[in-house]
């Protein structure tokens, strides 16, 4: 299995908050070493590899993950919690999942 993580780099050269948080958590969980490549979707360079991959896979938010499996199948994960569960069998709390959904859908709100 080959995993590519696409992270966003802001115009000021710093990683976006979510990308930095995900990288930090992957490191803490000991899973960062399982990520084969980390590429940037750099706001300063719309032709960066990360933006090309986002366009190719119709993804409009970062970070996201591309998982190429040995059987030739490919999966795109835009939800970090789903990625953790499906790829590493790592469960994420319902609260964290809900917060991730809300952050990806600003038109939603808590009930």
What does this protein structure show overall?
- The protein has one domain: Glutaredoxin (3-Layer(aba) Sandwich).
- Helix content is 36%, strand content 21%.
- It is built from 4 helices and 4 strands.
- It has a 4-stranded mixed sheet, sandwiched between helices.
- The model has no long low-confidence stretch (mean pLDDT 87).
What's a quick, concise take on this entry?
It is built from 4 helices and 4 strands, in the order E-H-E-H-E-E-H-H. It has about 110 residues and is of the alpha+beta class.
Topology of helices and strands:
Blueprint: E1 2-9, H1 17-28, E2 37-42, H2 49-56, E3 64-68, E4 74-77, H3 80-88, H4 94-104
Parallel strand pairs: 1-2
Antiparallel strand pairs: 1-3, 3-4
CATH architecture designation: 3-Layer(aba) Sandwich
Q: Look at the structure and give the mean pLDDT.
A: 87
Total separate domains? 1
- Structure summary, number of beta strands: 4
User: How are strands sequenced across the largest beta sheet?
Assistant: 2-1-3-4
Strand pairing plus helix content: what structural class? Answer: alpha+beta
Radius of gyration: 14 Å
Q: How helix-rich are the residues, as a percent range?
A: 25-40%
- What is the CATH class name? Alpha Beta
What's the N-to-C terminus distance?
A: 39 Å
Flag low-confidence runs: none
Shape descriptor = globular
Please state roughly what percent of the residues sit in beta strands, choosing from under 5%, 5-15%, 15-25%, 25-35%, 35-45% or over 45%: 15-25%
Oligomer: single chain
Largest sheet: 4 strands, mixed
The H-and-E topology, N to C, reads as EHEHEEHH
């Amino acid at each position: 299995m080959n995993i590519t993580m696409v992270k966003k780099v802001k115009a000021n050269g710093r990683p976006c908050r979510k990308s930095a948080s995900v990288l930090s958590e992957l490191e803490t969980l000991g899973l960062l070493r399982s990520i084969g490549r980390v590429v940037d979707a750099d706001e300063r360079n719309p032709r960066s590899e990360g933006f090309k991959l986002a366009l190719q896979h119709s993804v409009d938010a970062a970070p996201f993950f591309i998982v190429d499996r040995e059987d030739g199948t490919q999966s795109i994960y835009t939800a970090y919690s789903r990625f953790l569960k499906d790829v590493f069998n790592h469960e994420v709390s319902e609260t964290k999942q809900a917060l991730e959904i809300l952050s990806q859908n600003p038109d939603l709100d808590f009930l």
